[in-house]
Automatic annotation (TrEMBL):
Domain of life: Bacteria
Keyword field: Membrane, Transmembrane, Transmembrane helix
Protein name: DUF1772 domain-containing protein
Organism of origin: Prosthecobacter dejongeii
Transmembrane segments: 6-26, 46-67, 73-95
Length: 136
């Protein structure tokens, strides 16, 4: 179960790095006229990938705990899930809501990219902690 959980976390890491390096910066290049439609499409499509994986990450973490895993690296990795969820719903979602409501804004898009580093780093640290269980 820990292997499956780690796999899900690393799938999310790959996804967040793609979003951080490719998707969000490209928002600046879409243009004002096409942005609202593009952004709406992005949000709908990315949700079909991200939401199930995030829920699976939490569910599998609970499963790993339920099965008795108490490795300190695993336990230390758990608060990073909370950090990602808090950053998602308290920072990223409100910024996306601004973009949905007001449209293209260079400063808001730059804020989206800048603040998303919190999730990118948190998920990456979490994945490295989980990987270290198997390496060490």
């Amino acid at each position: 179960m820990l292997e499956f959980h780690t796999f899900i976390t690393w799938a999310l890491i790959g996804l967040i790095w793609h979003v951080q390096i490719v998707q969000y910066p490209l928002f600046l290049d879409v243009g004002r006229e096409a942005f609202s439609r593009y952004h709406c499409g992005h949000c709908l499509r990315i949700a079909f990938v991200v939401v199930p994986l995030m829920l699976l990450e939490v569910a599998s973490a609970i499963g790993v705990l339920w099965l008795g895993e108490r490795a300190s690296l695993f336990l230390f990795s758990l608060p990073w899930i909370a950090m990602v969820w808090l950053a998602t719903f308290l920072i990223q979602v409100p910024i996306h809501d601004q973009l949905t409501e007001f449209g293209w804004s260079e400063s808001v898009i730059q804020k989206l990219v800048r603040t998303n580093w919190l999730r990118t780093v948190a998920w990456t640290v979490r994945g490295l902690l989980l990987a270290w269980i198997f390496i060490g």
